[in-house]
């Protein structure tokens, strides 16, 4: 069979959405709405370009390239090995996976039972046990995320949004300072900060496995189906993000004390449902974090099995579940200090790889452009994260104030690589 049924296509699409949609994706849009107020929709347009466009393009780039290692090998074999390892570790057991447990605990459990160490350890153990059991079979996670937890998550979000439509909280508030002008650009930056493009580079491997598990065997069909799945996930993300931004904008006109999206969603839920609203919101956070945790464990287990096949996928999943459990209960402060700057260094590189991967057929003969574009992007990203040359960047680097100082160097690097590719053409 070389084609998925519409039902299975939707199933895998919801699975990919569920893997993307973690706690950060839940709290960014309502906070954007509360801050942007009457400028919510221009800001949301910018947000969608980066928070949805980049991840969907990431899925496409990985599918077209035959995987992240193959995509990154266009820069060089050594770069591919190091970059891919950093991607999987930083978005996996060194940051994102442990945070799924700690974040869901803070919203789903702590408000009701406190945040004592014993309770935190017990919760993390149960949380990672559930995620571990489901992630043991990466090829079958669409049966859970696509059929059960993903639809349940969407249903709970729909309940909150529908309540706000039936019983409006209020009118949109005034746009805050940063959204009064250039709201599209500001929204783009907010979406950029979700860093979901890195997750997209990871998730492609498991999505392809699930597609194959449903009977699609032809490699070209797997690629084309993965691309369709990416667009379905993007459409669902757009609908959910827009709905959350809308209720956040309504809340922003009435509730002005919120410091983040979690507080806004908590206030909205309690306004609509009373104490039960806290339970509903806790369930939303728990399911969203669990889905992401399952997806990341599956991806990391599958990838590391390709590196060292003597350890099975299930054993790798167990190893990462244990490591993530220990980090989550030990506290994330130290690991955040290390991992967040690393993410800041590799995220711009991931973006340029995605864009070049999408247009690879057009630029294939410019073989050196990959190396030079990534080199210039990486140098600037590392310098910014380490605080090197800050005065120069502030005074002379375009787009530095917007958090995008790497764009101009990336373009320069690409041009240099293109010129050198003509001088030193690739051998047949």
* DSSP helical segment count: 21
Report, as a whole number of angstroms, the end-to-end distance.
35 Å
Q: For the record, what CATH class of the largest domain applies?
A: Mainly Alpha
The major sheet is characterized as: none
* Fraction of residues in H or I helices: over 70%
Please state the oligomeric state of the protein chains shown: single chain
Indicate how many domains the architecture comprises. 2
Describe the structure.
The longest helix has 34 residues, at 219-252. The protein is 79% helix and 0% strand. The mean pLDDT is 89. The chain has helices spanning 6-20, 23-36, 40-65, 68-72, 77-90, 96-108, 110-113, 117-135, 142-166, 177-180, 183-192, 196-213, 219-252, 261-273, 275-307, 313-330, 333-358, 360-363, 369-386, 390-396, 407-423. With 428 residues, it is an all-alpha fold. The protein contains 21 helices and no strands. It folds into 2 domains: 6-331, Amino acid/polyamine transporter I (Up-down Bundle), CATH 1.20.1740.10; 335-428, no CATH class.
Helices and strands, with pairings:
Layout: H1 6-20, H2 23-36, H3 40-65, H4 68-72, H5 77-90, H6 96-108, H7 110-113, H8 117-135, H9 142-166, H10 177-180, H11 183-192, H12 196-213, H13 219-252, H14 261-273, H15 275-307, H16 313-330, H17 333-358, H18 360-363, H19 369-386, H20 390-396, H21 407-423
């Amino acid at each position: 069979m070389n084609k998925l049924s519409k039902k299975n296509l939707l199933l895998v699409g919801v699975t990919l959405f569920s893997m993307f949609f973690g706690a950060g994706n839940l709290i960014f849009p309502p906070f954007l709405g509360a801050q942007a107020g009457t400028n919510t929709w221009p800001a949301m347009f910018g947000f969608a370009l980066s928070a949805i466009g980049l991840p969907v393009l990431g899925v496409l780039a990985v599918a077209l390239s035959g995987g992240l290692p193959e995509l990154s090998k266009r820069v060089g074999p050594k770069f591919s090995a190091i970059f891919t390892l950093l991607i999987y570790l930083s978005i996996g057991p060194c940051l994102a996976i442990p945070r799924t447990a700690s974040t869901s605990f803070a919203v789903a459990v702590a408000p009701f039972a406190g945040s004592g160490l014993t309770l935190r350890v017990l919760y993390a153990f149960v949380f990672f046990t559930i995620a571990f059991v489901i992630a043991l079979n990466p090829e079958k996670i669409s049966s859970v995320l696509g059929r059960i937890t993903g639809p349940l998550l969407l249903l709970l979000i729909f309940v909150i949004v529908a309540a706000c439509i039936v019983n409006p909280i209020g009118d949109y508030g005034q746009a805050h300072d940063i959204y009064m002008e250039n709201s599209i650009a500001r929204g783009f930056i907010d979406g950029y900060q979700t860093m979901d493009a890195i997750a997209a580079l990871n998730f492609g491997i498991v999505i392809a496995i699930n597609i194959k598990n449903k009977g699609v065997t032809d490699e070209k069909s797997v690629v084309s189906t993965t691309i369709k799945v990416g667009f379905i996930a993007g459409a669902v993300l757009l609908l959910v993000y827009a709905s959350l931004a809308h209720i956040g904008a309504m809340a922003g006109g009435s509730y002005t004390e919120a410091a983040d999206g979690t507080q806004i969603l908590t206030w909205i839920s309690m306004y609509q449902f009373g104490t039960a609203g806290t339970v509903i919101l806790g369930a939303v956070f728990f399911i969203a974090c669990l889905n992401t945790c399952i997806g990341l464990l599956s991806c990391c287990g599958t990838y590391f099995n390709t590196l060292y096949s003597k350890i099975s996928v299930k054993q790798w999943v167990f190893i990462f579940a244990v490591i993530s459990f220990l980090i989550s209960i030990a506290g994330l402060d130290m690991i955040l200090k290390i991992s967040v700057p690393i993410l800041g260094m590799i995220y711009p590189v991931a973006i340029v790889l995605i864009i070049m991967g999408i247009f690879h057929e057009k630029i294939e003969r410019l073989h050196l452009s990959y190396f030079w574009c990534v080199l210039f992007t990486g140098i600037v990203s590392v310098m910014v994260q380490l605080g090197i040359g800050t005065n120069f960047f502030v005074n002379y680097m375009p787009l530095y104030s917007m958090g995008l100082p790497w764009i101009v160097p990336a373009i320069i690097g690409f041009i240099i690589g293109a010129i050198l590719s003509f001088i030193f053409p690739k051998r047949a």
